[in-house]
Records
---
Amino acid sequence: MMRTRPLKVALLGCGVVGSEVARIMTTHADDLTQRIGAPVELAGVAVRRPSKVREGIDPELVTTDATALLKRGDIDIAIEVIGGIEPARTLITTAFEHGISVVSANKALLAQDGAALHAAAEQHGLDLYYEAAVAGAIPLVRPMRESLAGDKINRVMGIVNGTTNFILDKMDSTGAGYQEALDEATALGYAEADPTADVEGYDAAAKAAILAGIAFHTRVRLDDVYREGMTEVSAADFASAKRMGCTIKLLAILERAADGESVTARVHPAMIPLSHPLASVREAYNAVFVEAEAAGRLMFYGPGAGGAPTASAVLGDLVAVARNKLAEATGPGESAYTQLPVSPMGDVVTRYHISLDVADKPGVLAQVATTFAEHGVSIDTVRQQGKDGEASLVVVTHRAPDAALSGTVEALRKLDTVRGVASIMRVEGE
Amino acid sequence: MMRTRPLKVALLGCGVVGSEVARIMTTHADDLTQRIGAPVELAGVAVRRPSKVREGIDPELVTTDATALLKRGDIDIAIEVIGGIEPARTLITTAFEHGISVVSANKALLAQDGAALHAAAEQHGLDLYYEAAVAGAIPLVRPMRESLAGDKINRVMGIVNGTTNFILDKMDSTGAGYQEALDEATALGYAEADPTADVEGYDAAAKAAILAGIAFHTRVRLDDVYREGMTEVSAADFASAKRMGCTIKLLAILERAADGESVTARVHPAMIPLSHPLASVREAYNAVFVEAEAAGRLMFYGPGAGGAPTASAVLGDLVAVARNKLAEATGPGESAYTQLPVSPMGDVVTRYHISLDVADKPGVLAQVATTFAEHGVSIDTVRQQGKDGEASLVVVTHRAPDAALSGTVEALRKLDTVRGVASIMRVEGE
């Protein structure tokens, strides 16, 4: 049964993603109509710079007054692709107050204010969908909150930032240093002029917070996510990783504690074995491993960013939200009933790869080994290399709480035979 | 808002999958209640052998009369994990006639009668969900029909049968022949006593038909799927594949024709480059590549079979169908509006790897090359090996319609310098 009155869509933002959304809504209008059961009409496009020429978009639809567009009374669904906290937050709230369901690609906002926005949507009986906020085109939010709704997710580990994966992949394949690889990523458009949000892990941490909430049916705020960027990763670290049969990736890792009573969420660079499927994720691709009790290990892989891939995710949500509108129903909202607390990084159980510059004299290894033992950290392997009176010691630990591992490192720094800690990197995926 | 009256579930079949479904429904009852918004109660279990002890299942719930269970008037949702065509088909139809939504894991039935079952569900305003019918726990049906609902899928290529992947992986890694690898798969429980459905590609063809329908929004019947099994794949084929930097996988490949006016669906063994992500799918795992216009290349990976993984998919569907019941709505039904015809195998554009036993005398290569040219097939590489008056010629073609390629092979067989066609294998994934 096909309805002929169209559902009206307000597009908030018309940059790289928004213009692709508008283009596909126009070129694939017949398909969208069939799949939804009613036509969807682009009824208004709110932008900051109205003078910019936007190919394929009727200039009559363009406005600088997003609030007025939402308040005019005929909009069914708003697509928010502005990004950032404000004005996006206020606009989404305004939309809900006017009976408008929302599709958003805004990871920063969802990570910071997801709970309040979900509550507002639920209060008004409306949808808030955001598949595009995490890992671009890769279906991840819907599979995790719908396909795995009858399962218990215990662990999520993934590469959720394309820019940093591009940089790390270049460093791995060419031996380049961080700055050189970043320069190439910037020249090719993979990194922004100010790459801070990517390289310091803020972008990945926002996605980690969103995914952790969905995975564990609890609330995980951005501040709950431990975060380390990858600007300190060096060519020497990659050389060390290679000696171990590993590469280095910036990982988002979300885990349920062994006792099931708490969860952890973290973003940091880590060595992973070359045999791990995440090791072979190249260039700016994203991939996420999900381990669930019944399903086992699943992996989702694809382009994590870009106008068209992100638009694909937005439009998938648009179809779902439009179908819900027609059925006068809503999709799954926030599920935070477990109320599991988020433990600090010190409680995370992991392994360290530590490179020490040490004095080349007898007894150093014994002193170092004693320090590990005093902190309850068991050593997996040690490799000693000496030349010209200098020596280096590479220690890989067994699994231990991060607090014990970092405490060990602090104690090692104080040993007079240890001249410096050359690098510390966690080891994951084994 | 939590409803306290439970939704009542009839479980039809209690084998490997059904018993896992029942177990999880019991052990994770609180989680399911929270995620659905109402409790779900296992209200009856229909089995063939009531005397069999089923741990964790109240014997009072067990019946041999599935029809009576569906007709008794209090069932909201039926889970069909019997498999095969009958009695599953009649029971699902009975369920719809009594206002019962259905979750099914039955690939054979969906591939054969999906259209009629979808029509029956729609007629009664009910749901028919079947994530578990394709690739076990891997979310694939929902991502394709919901996450990618705003995109245009052009190609799906995947490993959708775990048994054959296990056998081919063994042949590849150990150099074993087909029979030896099959025997190992049987001993380890990866292959059934009668492996025909797996090794002849019937199981993969059923999944291919289901996926093709979803991918292209058209109807693809089981008979529309070209099917070749993998019982003829030899150790020599793997040796040839290795020389080309390839391995051999049994692939399901669904493609939209270049002009967009038709589709093709096929299952056959093929060489794929080791660099292709599907090449590294080991043991009984499944993985499916989806190429969409806006999203680009996505991959979904995970366990393709087994009691618990399949139960995970069933329970994800159960949560969705239960939520729909509470909202008095239904999820997306069949989408077949494009009505794209399915072209025969001869129209598929592919590449052949052909090994010929030829006479070791001058002019043979010229004669063979002429035959290819006469059929409009362009040669990519030729490798000649001669010893003791015998010679072999390995030809890899460029892309050409399968009809032209198979026509070439027929003509080659008739050349008096060609003593035999040792093997033919398609080459994909480049």
---
Amino acid sequence: MTDERYSKLDMLGADARAADRPEEARLERVENPSQDADYMIRFACPEFTSICPVTGQPDFAHLVIDYAPAQWIVESKSLKLYLQSFRNHGAFHEACTMMIGQRLVDEIQPKWLRIGGYWYPRGGIPIDVFGQWGEAPKGLWIPDQGVPSYRGRG
Amino acid sequence: MTDERYSKLDMLGADARAADRPEEARLERVENPSQDADYMIRFACPEFTSICPVTGQPDFAHLVIDYAPAQWIVESKSLKLYLQSFRNHGAFHEACTMMIGQRLVDEIQPKWLRIGGYWYPRGGIPIDVFGQWGEAPKGLWIPDQGVPSYRGRG
Amino acid sequence: MTDERYSKLDMLGADARAADRPEEARLERVENPSQDADYMIRFACPEFTSICPVTGQPDFAHLVIDYAPAQWIVESKSLKLYLQSFRNHGAFHEACTMMIGQRLVDEIQPKWLRIGGYWYPRGGIPIDVFGQWGEAPKGLWIPDQGVPSYRGRG
Amino acid sequence: MTDERYSKLDMLGADARAADRPEEARLERVENPSQDADYMIRFACPEFTSICPVTGQPDFAHLVIDYAPAQWIVESKSLKLYLQSFRNHGAFHEACTMMIGQRLVDEIQPKWLRIGGYWYPRGGIPIDVFGQWGEAPKGLWIPDQGVPSYRGRG
Amino acid sequence: MTDERYSKLDMLGADARAADRPEEARLERVENPSQDADYMIRFACPEFTSICPVTGQPDFAHLVIDYAPAQWIVESKSLKLYLQSFRNHGAFHEACTMMIGQRLVDEIQPKWLRIGGYWYPRGGIPIDVFGQWGEAPKGLWIPDQGVPSYRGRG
Amino acid sequence: MTDERYSKLDMLGADARAADRPEEARLERVENPSQDADYMIRFACPEFTSICPVTGQPDFAHLVIDYAPAQWIVESKSLKLYLQSFRNHGAFHEACTMMIGQRLVDEIQPKWLRIGGYWYPRGGIPIDVFGQWGEAPKGLWIPDQGVPSYRGRG
Amino acid sequence: MTDERYSKLDMLGADARAADRPEEARLERVENPSQDADYMIRFACPEFTSICPVTGQPDFAHLVIDYAPAQWIVESKSLKLYLQSFRNHGAFHEACTMMIGQRLVDEIQPKWLRIGGYWYPRGGIPIDVFGQWGEAPKGLWIPDQGVPSYRGRG
Amino acid sequence: MTDERYSKLDMLGADARAADRPEEARLERVENPSQDADYMIRFACPEFTSICPVTGQPDFAHLVIDYAPAQWIVESKSLKLYLQSFRNHGAFHEACTMMIGQRLVDEIQPKWLRIGGYWYPRGGIPIDVFGQWGEAPKGLWIPDQGVPSYRGRG
Amino acid sequence: MTDERYSKLDMLGADARAADRPEEARLERVENPSQDADYMIRFACPEFTSICPVTGQPDFAHLVIDYAPAQWIVESKSLKLYLQSFRNHGAFHEACTMMIGQRLVDEIQPKWLRIGGYWYPRGGIPIDVFGQWGEAPKGLWIPDQGVPSYRGRG
Amino acid sequence: MTDERYSKLDMLGADARAADRPEEARLERVENPSQDADYMIRFACPEFTSICPVTGQPDFAHLVIDYAPAQWIVESKSLKLYLQSFRNHGAFHEACTMMIGQRLVDEIQPKWLRIGGYWYPRGGIPIDVFGQWGEAPKGLWIPDQGVPSYRGRG
Ligand SMILES: [Ca+2]
Ligand SMILES: [Ca+2]
Ligand SMILES: [Ca+2]
Ligand SMILES: [Ca+2]
Ligand SMILES: [Ca+2]
Ligand SMILES: [Ca+2]
Ligand SMILES: [Ca+2]
Ligand SMILES: [Ca+2]
Ligand SMILES: [Ca+2]
Ligand SMILES: [Ca+2]
Ligand SMILES: [Ca+2]
Ligand SMILES: [Ca+2]
Ligand SMILES: [Ca+2]
Ligand SMILES: [Ca+2]
Ligand SMILES: [Ca+2]
Ligand SMILES: [Ca+2]
């Protein structure tokens, strides 16, 4: 059942480990199987953690990535490993979220991409970061990410 | 439409202000209008704030108070003012929650009382405190307080 | 399709109006069609309003009534009209809720009855009243009333 | 893939129609495949309608049926057709709900059965009926039916 | 009560089985009964499963299909059987979702069609695919599909 | 308290019955009390049932109707009776939904009207139909109908 | 802490009572403190009741009012009293909702105003009314009112 | 980081495939790491499908399994493969659910086990099956499974 | 792991206290790490309290702040302390919300900023204030704030 | 505002870092301020991550800890740091959850303690672990933890 298109992938189906740093992580891509179409792909990534560059303590986020592929689509196992490589990476919420979006843009050169970073509260105040690259193809269907607003208690 | 029973209340319908400290706040009570019955009264108090005794920063909580009245019921405006008197009071979550329950018990001597304190997160971890005084009358109807669990993000 | 049992009802299917005061309102009852069984009947009444005896301003409540019928069941249209008769009635939340439960108990003499009164907030604090009459028949199925807890905002 | 046990069923997999009246409807049963066990089966039936015996207008209900089978289990297609046979049947909410429970008890003689009838509002007040037959086997697992409480608007 | 328009359908009301492969499955269509109108039809299909082409393990998805019919509408039983024919079909999430949308477009030539594929998580990350064909008629009413975002736990 | 405008209504406040067939049902209308304004009226109709023209079995739907009145508004009791007249009417989901919208358009000639038909699942797949007549007045406020998406189980 | 701007208000902080009829009720206004800005103010009013002009029975609604202030903003206590003055007022849902919006427009001459009236069900069908006055300033931020759709039961 | 205890497992971390039939599937177990404690383990399995023995069409279910381990705990990858082996298995909802519970009991001999099978609707009616084996250790903490009740539409 | 950019911050990581009055509070800013991009940052602030200028009683609000940074981003700890400085500040809901937005605009000169103030109910009616400064960059991604509407009870 | 009781705490209010391994982490405790009472304290900890001992990949969990204090209560900052020390710790879900509960029991010797570990899905199946130590004091108030069940998609 395998497919020519995937024969060059190194990580999918193999026992890959995450890189130590995002800069060393490899993101893999495969040919977009529907290159004629303007469509959208969404990844929801609730398992993300990095390090606060000031306090050295762990931060957590729920990330959602949307993109309209051009020639390439992201191979999802390499995406998982890429995100894991932030485990010891120190960066502020804004910088960390934008860095992930930029890296994906560089690797797969989509028609358009956006990333929502929904960070866990610090000092009672959660920060969300909403970054976007390129212009969405005219008429692209882009549903809301629908991550619930933070309510505190009660 | 007023009622003999309430004629001695000082705060209800008047322009009362909260005391500066909980110790100075006056809680008023009125005769329980249904002294034959074992029933339960619930107050939901989402507007509560006090001070962290270590950092001096404000804390916030959603409080829910349940009790089975004996001779007295709490006059709710005085309850509001009592809770407001914690605005500059420094105490840990556990101590603050229990202190409120104890004061109510002392003032209105209910058959039974409980208080749920649902505190806003600090360090990413919210604390809930569930205190109880006396034994609930046999067969008393005690619905869950139903305050949603803390979910973080996602 | 009508039924002997209902032929004496005055209000059902007729153009009845609510009484001016609860004391004047008539509650009708019909024979319990399942007198062998211990079962429970629930009325949810989100359209209730009365008057605050101190301020003269309207109060609102969502009421839920549960009971296990003995010989009689409540005719629901007369219940609706009975509840409407509180429109100009002044009473505190606790007294008003218990008065309704007591009246139903007097009229239909159920094996057991309870009423949950979920009042709209005053001074930022809503009051719920949970009253109960008699002992529930052993093994009676009594689901939670499931009215959401008050959350304030956020 | 068929099974001896089902070879006598008339309705399952056939083009059966509902009876005109509940009294004429046939309920089919099959051997309980797990007669050693005390377990519970739940049917959720959100598509139920009957007739108000006083006004002649249609009533609607969401029904949930729970039972602990003894020798027999209910064949679900015949249950569907049985419930459809109430389409022109006139009965009050309480009587209609209890009649369905009683019929099931008569047909399949379960160890225990209960039915929750969650009726659509009339006069602004929905009625729920909670009937039960027999005593649940000791330790039987009986989850709440979890039908949301009626909220009115807002 | 049957209707000329449906007399040529082979699957509806018959004992049809799903094809072994999507390529062999037949989709049936009937005349659009409202050809003058620009309106939208939605199918929600929470029972979908296919095979991962790399690991050979089952994948699951919740699909929602929206379209504006031109001359034809999809016969829903044949849609069900078409979707069932993917049970042993190996394809990635993106390709599988787009293939279903394309096939429907080929068969019923709608004015416009879109499909949302909401796949169950793999490696902790669910993928959603949002494909679209044609341009929606001006002013067409297109409600959100409203499938909840993936939240992980908590 | 009655009003000239309503004096010619036959059904409101009277003991009207539903017609046997939609074609025979009478829809009543009253003068739009705010003819200067472009505003929207919504009816939510969760109590709707008709007959499947192929299988003869009952279908159920939740309908929501939105319109911007011109000279007339729909009298709601006659709407209720009109919808009841589908109880023995056989039609497919698409045709039935559009027929109701068309009839309302013919009777009250609104500036614009739409109807959402949210049908209960058949074969595991619910169908929703979204029909619309006319062009909404520029700037009309049209909130989403907000009927939850079908989720299957889990 | 008081403020020049409010010194002429009669009702705020005083023991005001509602008028007997909406026509007699006084709405107070204060200077808009941010006259340079195009912003929106929302009032949610879940405690509203009036009278059905045909049956004389009470109606209930949840109202939400949104407006973009020009020179004036509504003083909220006078709004509360104005809404209370409908307690004995007979009017249909459509007329009553639009009358409230019109009165506010007349009194505070906002740049734009809208009112959503979400009425409790009658005859199983709730009516919502969505009225609007003026044109919203370009780019004004107008969040959905987010009142849940009526679901019946189940 | 591996652990002696897991060295004999064949499936975990390997490229295992599901068996063709449940009878051929192997379930693996590992030593319970906390044998002194009475605790509960829950698996939620929303990806389950089998075959209807009468119609040959696929069925879907959401399963939740709770147990109190004695000497063994279930290895979760082998559980996943075991559940996959039902993909071509024909059985009724009741029988299929109980068969899974029984097999787990046979393999890991827990102190107590229960399984909730929440099946997708057929004929508009979903069936839930709640089976249980053994007696829960005194005081065991057993949270509700919390799977939402089926609501139909609206 | 610290970063040149943050070396001049006084409050972050230090034992800072809130100012006594908003006018005295210092807001700190850091260089926007992604100045090429048009992106949005959101702060959710459920822990806000100020004083009613007429009654002297505490008010509570849930605030959500969205902005598109130009050269600067807000340092979040200084934001927390700034909001705390309103603890003894008297202002009406409208004025208080707009004042916070204006101050942020003055300090960080964003491309665009908005603030939603969701205030707890007074007199049974909560007020929401939606203020906005500047024009959002073309194509900026601005998700709804998603704060639930106020429902009262039931 | 500080308090004698806390003067010996090393971590609270200081710049503490998490230990490298759970075995090295120090948990601090303070005197229970309400030693006469049987009450419950709950910590919700949605920011937890450890390592899978077989695959070496990160695992995530939402933890909720409930206990009835005897002489000591847990200092919450040290709890946060203790949980962070699992960041590089390899253990299965069951073992990891029980290890945390046991450590807390050893350190603060509560009257009773329980921990719910709600792990993110692996292989499409999330595992929950519910451990408990000691016997809850008679009549202790123990609300459900209320963590939503895992729903997959749809
Ligand atoms: Ca925090
Ligand atoms: Ca809150
Ligand atoms: Ca925190
Ligand atoms: Ca989470
Ligand atoms: Ca209030
Ligand atoms: Ca009604
Ligand atoms: Ca996964
Ligand atoms: Ca179905
Ligand atoms: Ca599902
Ligand atoms: Ca109704
Ligand atoms: Ca429904
Ligand atoms: Ca079905
Ligand atoms: Ca209020
Ligand atoms: Ca209030
Ligand atoms: Ca309400
Ligand atoms: Ca998984």
